[in-house]
Design brief:
single chain, alpha+beta, eleven-stranded mixed beta sheet, 13 helices, 11 strands, about 20% strand
Length: about 425
């Protein structure tokens, strides 16, 4: 597994100059091996680098390397490898959301209160820290769902922007991330978001670029049937909307449908149809999913998409929430203690790259059947999780005694011949 990680990371040596590649390797591998907090001091102490600790800080805040070029190169490399591994069976979509990281440092850049919509009853409604708008690629296979986090951008509330910064809300940042991926691949994507990001103005921007949006609607939203188009020869403009849809009356005519969600086949009761939302210029395909005596409203801007596809795609959006949990608990996403904004931005995006590298390693060893998924008396996983992969990596590093002093003696990583002949990829 170590060989495979080194092979993947060696693909990006051309992005860095003047010996900075060794710091990139140190950060990524430390994130993967993290035990305890992933502060810069811990990364330095565990990496085996012979340089000064301040060099690690300068790598994030001052050294000249282009984060966007690294992100683009990594995404295109990841996308190419996924196509080679899965071929025509690969189904991908972009998924976006925001995550809050609690910080207490008074001198850290852009630390301020953010409203926590998931706060528990009686708990604090605001979190003092950073809010990151993120984007990842979610991949569906016949029996599982994987998510590769890709991009993150810091959201700053308008009150704290200052005169030298232009305020951008979360939805604007999210649309910019989607357009960035679209420009890199020149492809049209399915975009999965929760109801907060399904605002008319921003959905229409993505539709104009050819993307398909799948999201959720409020249960009490005003949705209308399309106008029947009959010529009534009455005065006035033509009708924009037909009759309003009463979703509560549809429960008696709901149909049962088998869908694969959350790792298993489930029978659900659904209604579906074509509708128009008030103020929207486009028609949508709505799906009403019944849960006991309540319902959940989903929609897709692709009218030809089947009901099961809409449900399965939206259910796969939940993977980004699990990814946030893994990044915080296992990868040290919120452990940074950096003051500068550029350093914080680079740290978080390197952390996402490390998570994606580890996920890709797990997919490769499963696809090529290099290792079997370990089984325990209390735990019987079907696939490699982030926690299992990390335990494998830590064990290999301990058994082989490999440290990163190898990187301190060369600008670019030169894989030894024994490792190069392994032919894992």
């Amino acid at each position: 597994m170590i060989i495979l990680i080194y092979k993947i990371l060696s693909q990006f040596s051309n992005i860095f100059k003047n010996g900075t590649f060794k710091y990139f390797m140190a950060f990524i591998i430390r994130f993967i091996r993290v035990q305890g907090k992933a502060t810069i001091t811990q990364i330095y102490l565990s990496s085996g680098l012979t340089c000064s600790l301040s060099n690690c800080h300068r790598f994030l805040s001052k050294y000249k390397w282009d984060l966007e070029s690294l992100q683009k190169y990594f995404f295109l490399f990841l996308y190419r490898v996924l196509k080679l591994l899965l071929g025509e069976n690969m189904k991908c979509a972009l998924v976006g959301d925001d995550v809050k990281v609690k910080k207490t440092g008074k001198k850290q850049a852009n630390v301020h209160p953010h409203f926590d919509h998931a706060a528990k009853a009686g708990g604090e409604k605001y979190i003092n820290g950073h809010c990151w708008v993120t984007l990842g690629i979610v991949m569906r296979t016949a029996n599982r769902i994987l998510l590769f986090p890709l991009l993150a951008v810091l959201y700053i509330r308008e009150k704290y922007c200052g005169a030298d910064k232009k305020f951008k809300n979360k939805l604007t940042l999210w649309v910019e991330l989607v357009k960035k991926i679209s420009n890199w691949t020149k492809e049209k994507w399915i975009v999965l978001v929760d109801s907060f990001y399904s605002k008319k103005e921003y959905v229409e921007k993505l539709i104009s670029d050819g993307h398909t949006v799948i999201s959720r609607l409020r249960w009490d939203i005003a949705c209308f049937e399309p106008p029947n188009g009959a010529n009534t020869k009455k005065r006035g403009r033509p009708k924009k909307y037909g009759d309003r849809i009463d979703f509560w009356s549809l429960s008696s005519v709901a149909e049962e449908l088998k869908v694969f969600i959350y790792g298993k086949d489930v029978m659900v009761k659904v209604n579906t149809g074509i509708g128009i939302l008030r103020g929207w210029k486009i028609q949508i395909r709505w799906v009403c999913v019944w849960c006991d005596d309540k319902y959940v409203l989903l929609f897709s801007t692709d009218l030809s998409m089947s009901t099961s596809e809409i449900i399965e795609w939206y259910a796969s959006r939940w993977k980004i929430e699990l990814s946030y949990r893994d990044e915080k608990q296992n990868m040290g996403l919120g452990d940074y203690q950096i003051r500068s904004e550029i350093g914080i931005n680079r740290y978080v995006n390197l952390n996402l790259i490390a998570t994606s590298v580890l996920t890709l390693v797990g997919l490769i060893i499963e696809n090529k059947k290099i290792f079997k998924v370990p089984q325990y008396s209390w735990y019987h996983p079907k696939y490699f999780t982030i926690g299992l992969l990390k335990s494998f990596v830590i064990r290999e590093f301990e058994n082989r005694g490999i440290i990163l002093t190898l990187l301190d003696s060369s600008k670019n990583l030169k894989i030894p011949n024994k490792l190069r002949k392994s032919g894992v990829l």
